[in-house]
UniProtKB/TrEMBL annotation:
Family matches, as InterPro entries: FAD-bd (IPR002938), FAD/NAD-bd_sf (IPR036188), FAD_aromatic-hydroxylase (IPR051704)
Residue span(s) of domain FAD-binding: 5-336
Taxonomic source organism: Phytohabitans aurantiacus
Gene3D superfamilies in UniProt: D-Amino Acid Oxidase, subunit A, domain 2 (3.30.9.10), FAD/NAD(P)-binding domain (3.50.50.60)
Highest taxon of the lineage: Bacteria
Name of this protein: FAD-dependent oxidoreductase
Xref: SUPFAM superfamilies: FAD/NAD(P)-binding domain (SSF51905)
Length: 398
């Protein structure tokens, strides 16, 4: 990889992590990002299993642990606000074995600080053309440059994937998610509250070092038609989905207008037969989004970046061999983690009032049983097994 010019589309977790590892292997990465600056804030994310090993090999594990959210616990509440069941933060978040939870923006900033390379903010790939010497890239700014390789790390709606692979690959799971910052009007101290109604769930939590709180809404729905650039339309769809709902839902929805980080999208997975085409490859959500319901998107991005850079270096400049080895290493791991998404979301969103009542009763009972920690540990065991379902290689030179 020595002195290879690699363009990475997307300055999220996958893109910045890949830039780090490519530099370690001697390449010259450039990251292009449509946003005018690094995206701050965002939802809390987990680093689990093999991804913890990746962070450790980066020498960043202590810094990651210092940025943990510090969430102490969580409670399930009913429409009146009564706490039906409560548990500690790691159990509530499905964490074990030293897993770390931190805000996406904090992790992204840390990776960016340790990935010194050229970052082109406020620009994006407009066209890709294979040439004898590499990939000619035309940017939206009008600039044109040739790179040895191009990697799309630009999310579930990847522009790079569309240009190099065409349409398709995105599979709607039948749910929508919205996340944004809200005032901490409930006075939460590193605590999470979750309210479950038929076909829709709402939660709010506070973290260390943040005076505000984050709200998340997850609801079942057939496909919705809206302009992805029309925030007002998205807010109306969200309000319509939760019309008449109790608890603190109306107050949380009202805060959406002033939120600087409003996010709304379908809950989807990306499933592709191949992750590379010629000199173009895909990474993270662009290649194998597992959906936020899996809780493994960040870990997949970190592990994928490590493996992709390592296999390209091990292939000694043969990008075809490197891309093929990357797929062989990652596909079983991706399959195990993608399977978590559909299973988890069914537990997060109950379809009927009867299911909600039964779930609340069971949670209330479990909360009073002796040895409840052992019972909850069995519930989170599948997440840990998926998070450790890959043996990381030690690539030469690292």
């Amino acid at each position: 990889m020595t002195n290879s010019k690699v363009l990475i589309s997307g300055a999220g977790i996958a893109g910045t992590a890949l830039a780090y590892w490519l530099r370690r292997h001697g390449a010259r990465p450039t990251v292009v990002e449509r946003a005018p600056a690094l995206r701050d804030g965002g939802y809390k994310v987990d680093i689990r299993g093999a991804a913890l090993d990746v962070v450790d090999r980066m020498g960043l594990l202590d810094e990651v642990r210092a940025l943990r959210t510090g969430v102490r616990g969580g409670s399930i509440v009913d429409a009146s606000g009564r706490r039906v069941a409560s548990m500690d933060g790691d159990t509530f978040g499905g964490r074990a074995h030293g897993d770390a939870e931190l805000l996406r923006g904090d992790l992204n900033r840390l990776l960016h600080e340790h990935s010194p390379c050229e970052y082109r903010f406020g620009d994006a790939i407009a066209a890709l053309t294979d040439t004898a010497g590499g990939v000619e890239v035309r940017f939206e700014s009008g600039a044109t440059e040739t790179y040895d390789l191009v990697v799309g790390a630009d999310g579930v709606h990847s522009r790079t994937r569309g240009l190099a692979f065409g349409d398709g690959g995105v599979h709607d799971l039948g749910y929508y998610v919205s996340i944004f910052s809200v005032p901490n009007h409930l006075g939460l101290d590193r605590w999470e509250l979750t309210y479950v109604g038929p076909g829709r769930t709402a939660l709010v939590y506070s973290t260390a070092r943040d005076a505000s709180a984050k709200a998340m809404f997850l609801f079942a729905s057939p496909p919705l038609q809206y302009d992805t650039g029309d925030r007002a339309a998205q807010q109306r769809l969200l309000a319509d989905a939760y019309q008449g709902e109790g608890w603190e839902v109306p107050a949380l929805l009202a805060a959406a207008d002033a939120a600087p980080d409003f996010y709304f999208d379908s809950l989807s997975q990306v499933r592709l037969d191949r992750w590379s085409a010629g000199r173009v490859a895909l990474l993270g959500d662009a290649a194998y989004c597992a959906s936020p319901a899996s809780g493994q998107g960040t870990s997949l991005a970190l592990v994928g970046a490590y493996v992709l850079a390592g296999e390209l270096a091990a292939a000694g400049g043969d990008h075809r061999a490197g891309f093929a080895a990357y797929e062989r290493e990652m596909r079983p791991f991706v399959a195990r983690n993608q399977a978590l998404g559909p299973a988890n979301v069914k537990r997060m969103v109950m379809r009927t009032k009867g299911q909600v009542r039964m779930s609340m009763a069971m949670l209330g009972l479990v909360g009073r049983l002796p040895g409840k920690e052992r019972l909850m540990a069995k519930m989170v065991a599948p997440i840990h097994r998926a998070a450790t379902a890959i043996t990381l290689k030690r690539y030469q030179g690292l």
